[in-house]
Amino acid sequence: MIPVVHRELHQIAKRCLARERADHSFQATVLVNEAYLRLVDAQDVAWQDRAHFLAVAARVMRRILVDHARARRALKRGSPAVRVTFDEALLVTNEPREDFVVLDDALQALATFDERKSRVIELRFFGGLSVEETASVLSVSPETVMRDWRLAKAWLQREMRGATPL
Amino acid sequence: MTPERWKRVEELYHAALALPLGERSAFLVDGCQEDEALQRDVESLLNEAASSGGLLDTPARGPGAIASEVTPVPLSGRTLGGYHLSALLGAGSMGEVYRARDEKLERDVAIKVLPSDVTSNPDRLARFEREARVLAALNHPNICAIYGFEQADGHRYLILELVDGETLSHRIASGLPIEEALRVARQLAEALEFAHEKGIVHRDLKPANITITRDGVVKVLDFGLAKLAASDAPGADPIGGTQEGMILGTAAYMSPQQARGQPVDKRADIWAFGCVVYEMLTGRVAFAGETVSDTIGKILEREPDWSAIPPDTPSVVKRLLRRCLAKDPKQRLRDIGDVRIEIDAIDDRPEASVVSMAPLPPAKARASWLPWVALVAIGAGVGLWEARRAAIMPADPLADARFTRITDWEGTEGGAEISPDGKFVAFLADRDGQFDIWLSQVGTGVFRNLTADIPALQPIGPTFRKFGFSGDGSEIWFSPDTGPSMAQMIMPLMGGTPRTFLQKGATAPSWSPDGSRIAYFKNNESDPLFVADRSGENARQIMAEEGVHHHNPVWSSDSQWIYFARGPEPTDPMDVWRIRPSGGSPEPLTEHRTAVNFLAALDSRTLLYVAREEDRSGPWLWALDVERKVTRRVASGLGQYTSVSASRDGQRVVATVANPTSSLWSVPLLDRPAQDRDVQSYPLPTARALAPRFAGNSLFYLSNRGMADGMWRMQDGHASEVWKGVDGRLSEPPAVSADGSRTAIIVRREGMRRLIVVSADGRSSQALAPSLDIQVTAGQSAADWSPDGRWIVAAGRDSQGSGLFKIPSDGGAPVRLLTGQAGNPVWSPDGNLILYSGKFFTGQAELLGVRPDGTPVDLSLPRARPGGYRFLPNGTGLVYLQFLPSVDFWLVDFATKTSRPLTRLSNQGSLTTFDITPDGKAIVFDRSRENSDIVLIERPK
Questions:
Q1: Which of A112, B172, B764, B872 is the most buried (most CB within 10 A)?
Q2: DSSP 8-state assignment for residue B732
Q3: Cβ atoms within 10 A of the Cβ of B839, count?
Q4: CA neighbor of B706 nearest in space, from B681, B732, B725
Q5: CB pairs under 8 A between A and B
């Protein structure tokens, strides 16, 4: 299952990130859902739970985007000027996103003491899942997702800015 | 942070959030029970939420914000630090300048107070400080000195030499005799020469920045400061923006490259110098227009009025002037020092009133870097330099070579490397779902996945080499990750367990030809270059320079040199340099100043590498003759080259060639869903085409002829390029007015996306809505015209936030139609409705409507791909793109409110943009395919 997802998302992400159409902004959700629909269409895969798929896809998408950002950037400073906007619409562009790498590092740090919040950010930010979908994947209430989202964002913003760690 | 402590933080955080602001502190004091650290932690998190407004992190402010900043109270009469400020001498975008008295040293100085948008950003401020230090070292009688950079009372300010005199613009207005003009020119040239030697470019040279003292000494002000106040966008030039308020008056001295927003080098100064000399001699501005865009148009297209130059101007000066104002930077005068030499050589030499105190760098210091010429390969036109520098095109090292495609796989391959003995080829490919290193013995057609069991490697898009062969060809090294603590891994070619190799952070190792030594660099602020022995031990650092990037070292075939790519920014701009393996001063070999990468030594005097053209098209394959420092493009015609590698004897080369193709197709609108057999190729004179747009009797689309995508127009079977990719290339389909007379394109300037209206013949252009950062989604058009051509609706973002705006098409302030996430608007043919995509949900957008006056309209339309919808020309329906269950066109009829599929196509490449023919009978769409393959190049013996 995972290699199939991986390949599909890679195909899509590669097309979107390719030199051919540079400077295009794509919603992460567009990529994820294109993959979903292709897989749904594929004969040999039966997806019972769409939310489950999205959860997996979010993780894969995060890896793809972060790997792409790492590959494209040259790490020069510890913390580059970070400008991650937590806009509901995540824009993915062909330009190297240093902030993705910083975010990824921060997410990994967060996961060491709060796995669930790291997942919430991953699902919503990289997977574009709604609050309800996130709640369904994590088996918690939407209110919990909102609270997690709020606190996690606050913690991440500090962390990515390079403020003294808590 | 432990999970337990975090739980406490979390409880307190949410509980405090639920309380009114005033009660939170008390609550926390109580709840934290003496644990001050805990209280501090929770408070810092609470402050985080408050300051960011809960949603957006504070975005960097663009140049538009400066114009709207409230003017701070003047500081005249105050004391700042040890300085007493008196008169305000001037104010500009870079701060206010006051006359001041240094009480301690009892001298008069000038104080320049920095604006808050520089000082509030710690990164910019730090950069400013570093640069100011560099500028402070510019010690020359013709350059206004920087004495210091201090802060007091919350202000940061530069302490500058106070120059008492008349600005050149003033002097020009009262008339300058030729002798004096030449005197001034010579001193100007000296100042520029001095700074250029030190690698400093002025960037904003103009008569207002030049002062002449009572003794006739020329002083150049504001050297290099234009860059310091610029936005963070790399390569962006603040003067190159079309911010009306910001550059009024300055546009006149911009070089064509600056006008295009391209990175600026000393040749921009030479251009500005030409403008200043022209103005001194003629009394009029060389390039003047009524509006900024008029001026830029003249800079790009027109020559100055040469007849205005006084007839008794020495012909040497006239010639120099033409060379300074050559629009093509390759034809322009390259070294301002030549001006000084020529002026000195004039017989009626003017009484020099300047004392040349600072010794000029000796001529021999320049001789170590021989002037060289870059030539464009045959077919793209040859630009010859002045006769003084005789140019000899080096032989094409790949002439008569045999090219064989090694792979022709679906998917992406890249980063190809060849073993030193030329027998094996390795490359990255995603054939198995993730990127792995694949190995093949040349000539066998058999491929093996070497890293199937190893966690995924980096996808292609490299800055550094990610893997390669060891010196004896028995092993392969690779980078599992590019973090700062990465270690390279190495493993035997025939399989085996990888082990770590070289010190942490070592990148892109390259073995010397005899295999005894390894060169590599470490990935950090100064990119130090190391040489170690074959086992990786005894590493010795041979070079490091802070703030400069060095990548991908490669040994020359005689082991005398190490070549590498070097530049102020990683990957772009860069050039090829070399250094002795024992260390010493590095030496530049090329002058591309674009993306340069992947060096491969062919023989002792030839280097192959991959680099982009000045307009950022490519990358292409280039050859460098290291002795003569001459370059040429090679092996054109196959496609874009994204990597190159050579065997030790230089007989075999492997390269990754990318051949992105894009073409237009048409499918008719039928009563039944159209199938693959109904699809036809849409004939066009250009091989490449994407993003079609019909208007009037023309078809507009993007295309190029081996360079960057520009806008083309086909009319009556004849196609022509109407707009070259000004900032490298155009990416989104243009928006065209209904009568086909004007188009709107999106262009990047200073990190913003700007809307530019271009006439259909490409002759005139105008930037609109300076405060609007256009939001592009899904590569689709972000703007559309009203049917009467008076308005343009666009998705954008200004200081108030995102939304949909309508902009008067001949200039004027944008009117906000709605706030929130909105993209890809289209205007109905009857002008009464604007459709746009709203929130994204599960990958498709809901289609929403708004009237041109801003009234929302309730529609219940099916969801569609963002931007993938166009009105039928007669307005009776909407064609939209679905991708469930496959990528197909659907039609919704407004009268019956039903939708039906128009096509049932198989997926043959990536479909991005479409439009409907004016007769409403067919859909024309583009299909793109990215094909990258590994190519083996074998040179004749």
A1: B172
A2: S
A3: 14
A4: B725
A5: 191
Q: Give me B551's structure tokens.
A: 């990548």
Whether B204 is catalytic is yes
- Contact residues on chain A for B803, CB-CB shorter than 8 A: none
3-state secondary structure B234-259: CCCCHHHCCCHHHHCCCHHHCCHHHH
B783-785 and B791-798: which strand pairing? Answer: antiparallel
Tokens of B476: 């392969």
Query: Which residues on neighbouring strands pair with residue A91, listed in sequence order?
Result: A27
| Token pair of B40 as six digits | 């501090």
- Residue B577: CA atoms inside 13 Å, Cβ hemisphere, count? 24
Kindly state the tokens that stand for B669. 């609108």
Q: Which one from B41, B102, B117, B204 is the annotated catalytic residue?
A: B204
What whole-number distance in Å separates Cα of residue B88 and Cα of residue B111?
9
Tokens of B87: 């008169």
Distance CA B146, CA B138 (A): 8
pLDDT interval class at B245 (50, 70, 90):
very low
Residue numbers in A near B59 (CB within 8 A): 83, 85
Please give the span between the terminal C-alpha atoms of chain A, in angstroms, as a whole number.
Answer: 38
Helix residue ranges, H only, A26-141: 28-41, 50-72, 98-111, 115-121, 131-138
- Quick: pLDDT tens for B379-428: 222 223 322 222 455 678 888 888 888 887 766 678 899 999 999 999 98
Beta strands B844-850 and B856-857, pairing class: antiparallel
What span, in angstroms and rounded, lies between the C-alpha atoms of B205 and B521?
38
Look at residue B257 in the predicted model and tell me its pLDDT: 82
Grouping H, G, I as helix, E, B as strand and the rest as coil, residue A5 is: helix
Residue entry with tokens 């009572």: B214
Alpha helices for B198-289 (secondary structure H): 225-228, 244-247, 256-259, 266-282
pLDDT, tens digit (0-9, with 9 covering 90-100), for B571-604: 667 899 999 999 888 889 988 877 788 899 998 8
**What's the pLDDT score for residue A32?**
57
CB-CB neighbours of A7 under 10 Å = 18
The token duo for B916 is: 């409907």
pTM, two decimals, is: 0.42
CA of B279: how far to CAs of B174, B322, B555, in Å? 12, 13, 50
Put simply, the chain B residues between 869 and 898 with a CB less than 8 A from any chain A CB are 883-886
- Residue B403 class from Cβ within 10 Å (0-12 exposed, 13-18 middle, 19+ buried)? middle
